[in-house]
Design brief:
Elements (H helix, E strand, L loop, with lengths): L33 H12 L8 E2 L6 E5 L5 E6 L12 H14 L14 H13 L4 E5 L2 H12 L5 E5 L4 H10 L3 E4 L4 H14 L5 E6 L11 H10 L3 E5 L13 H5 L8 E5 L9 E5 L2 H10 L1 H4 L6 H15 L1 H23 L11 E7 L1 H14 L1 E2 L1 E3 L9 E6 L6 H34 L1
Parallel strand pairs: 3-12, 5-6, 5-7, 7-8, 8-9
Antiparallel strand pairs: 1-2, 2-3, 4-10, 9-10, 11-14, 13-14
Helix pairs in contact: 2-11, 3-11, 4-5, 4-9, 6-7, 11-12, 12-14, 13-14
Length: about 450
């Protein structure tokens, strides 16, 4: 990995954020976005752009990867979302190969037409059964499922009350559906109640949807689902819970926080993704009756007007559910949680802290964006792949590294990761202190 001279790093690469370029101005739609590229490239040239990387070996516990400038690295991988380490499972690969041999590689149709296969129909039944619901409908991605469940059901006169940290797909679905959007403070059920009370005091005719997540991926925390569903019953609202990050990976039976809180079959709508635990792209919405399923199939634009999951994707997700429900799934979840707890303990011993409760997401606190970017520059050189999350994806000054744990990580992988992260923080802290000296000297002069 290339080394960098801190003194030559443009200060622009340590400042600014993606939000600065979200609403460009000017008549030239293409020309007005060049400012973003100049800022991005300043970070790239300084080794401070840790995004858009590619792997040569797949999402294993160790990895060979390259950044988008072609600089390569080898090391331990805490950046991939493969919580139960199923992506390279022999039975998963065999299932994909069998599906391709039988069906080919492309669904060649919307699920509203002829894009379904025997595997996708069976997968819908399995999801509904797994969640104690009557029906489920598939989407081509988890993002499409989150966007589609809101856009498919909510109309302009309706209202959406959502946790302020809800995923981008849920936020975008809400913005596309209605202007009547109310955000409650993260995990604050009382604040949610106040919005519902205010809405129903002036509008008893239109629909209200409450939106939250089973496990928030930036903070590794969870809402009180019992209280939220009770609120929805009280105010004639509909609850949607996104279980992308906990379903399959948490709880002895793999049913995530819905299972842990005794809410199997009791949530109005459950939306999820296969891409974190179930070794495939794709998503779903589980519901309590056939009417909702059929309406979403034909009115949620991200399923109606998109090709269905490929044959291999549907077959792989179905096989992954089989593993999740088996004794192997039990021990894989146990191995995952053991690794999570070991990583959290090792981080604390190294003087590093993290957010939230134990889950496959261990978000390590960094603080300011400048320091976090300097840390991100050191990680590949020292042999660690971990994802930097910074403003506006999280609060300003609350940058973090989202370390994503797998069942297949070894004790040595964890020890190596913590040692390399701690070393990177130490080096970056020195660099950051050096960066402030010229400014201090100028002020003194």
């Amino acid at each position: 990995m290339a080394s960098y001279d801190y003194a030559s790093t443009p200060m622009a690469a340590l400042g600014g954020s993606m939000r600065d370029f979200r609403v460009p101005s000017g008549a030239d739609l293409l020309g007005r976005i060049e400012g973003f590229y100049r800022w991005q490239d300043a970070r790239r040239q300084g080794g401070l752009w840790p995004f858009s990387r590619s792997t040569q070996t797949g999402p294993g516990a160790t990895v060979s990867a390259s950044d988008d400038s072609g600089r390569s690295m080898d090391g331990v991988n805490f950046a991939s979302q493969d919580y139960l380490s199923l992506a390279s499972h022999p039975a998963i690969k065999e299932t994909a190969q069998e599906a391709i041999a039988r069906y080919g590689v492309h669904s060649a149709g919307s699920p509203a037409l002829v894009g379904n296969t025997t595997h996708s129909i069976a997968l819908e039944r399995k999801i509904a059964e797994f969640l104690g619901m009557e029906e489920a409908v598939l989407f081509p991605t988890g993002w499409a499922a989150g966007y589609g469940v809101i856009r498919g059901l909510v109309r302009s006169a309706d209202h959406i009350v959502m946790d302020q940290l809800a995923h981008a797909c849920l936020q975008e679905g809400a913005n596309a559906a209605t202007r009547n959007i109310y955000q409650f403070r993260h995990l604050d059920t009382d604040h949610c109640r106040r919005w519902l009370s205010e809405i129903r005091a002036k509008d008893a005719e239109n629909g209200v949807m409450v939106v939250t997540e089973g496990l928030f991926s930036m903070d590794s925390d969870t809402p009180n689902l019992v209280a939220l569903q009770d609120l929805c019953h009280e105010y004639n609202a509909t609850l949607v819970v996104d279980v992308a990050h906990d379903l399959g990976a948490l709880g002895e039976d793999g049913r995530g926080h819905i299972g842990l809180q005794g809410m199997i079959g009791k949530i109005d709508l459950v939306m999820g993704s296969f891409s974190k635990t179930f070794a495939s792209n794709g998503g779903f919405v589980a519901c309590k009756n056939r009417a909702v399923k059929e309406y979403l199939r034909f009115y949620a634009p991200s399923t109606t007007f998109s090709n269905a999951l490929s044959q291999a994707q549907a077959a792989v997700a179905l096989k992954a559910f089989e593993i999740v429900e088996s004794q192997e799934g039990v021990w894989r979840r146990a191995a995952l949680m053991r690794n999570v707890l070991d990583l959290r303990a090792a981080l604390r011993r190294s003087g590093l802290d993290y957010y939230g409760e134990p889950s496959a997401i261990v978000a390590v606190k960094m603080g300011g964006e400048a320091l976090a970017r300097l840390v991100s520059r050191q990680l590949p050189r020292l042999g660690l792949l971990a994802n930097l999350v910074e403003y506006p994806a999280v609060g300003k000054g609350a940058a973090r590294f989202r370390m994503q744990v797998m069942a297949g990580h070894t004790a040595q992988n964890i020890a190596d990761a913590v040692e390399r992260l701690a070393a990177s923080v130490a080096i970056a802290t020195q660099e950051y202190e050096m960066s402030k000296k010229p400014a201090q000297s100028a002020a003194a002069a």
